[in-house]
Amino acid sequence: MIRSALRPPSRHASTPPAQTRRWPRRALGALAFVAVAAVCAVPAGAHGGPALAATTPTSVVPVAALTVTTPFPDIETQPGSTVRLDVNVASPTVSPVDIAVDGVPDGWKSTLRGGGFVIHSVTATPDGPVKATLELDVATDAPAGDYPIKITGTSGDDKSVVDVTVTVAEQVDNGIQVTADFPTLKGDASSDFTYNLTITNNTPEEQTFTFDPSGPEGWTVTASPTAEARAETVNIEAGATGQVQVKATPPTTAQEGSYPIDVTVTAANGATGKIELTAQITGAPVLQLATADQRLDVSGRSDSEHRIPMIVANTGTGDLTDVKLAGTAPTGWDVSFDPQSIDSVKPNETAQVTAIVKPASDAVSGDYALTIRASAGSQSSSVDLRYSLKGSHTLGFVAVGVIVLAFAALAAVFWKFGRR
Question: Into how many domains does the chain fold?
Answer without folding.
Answer: 3
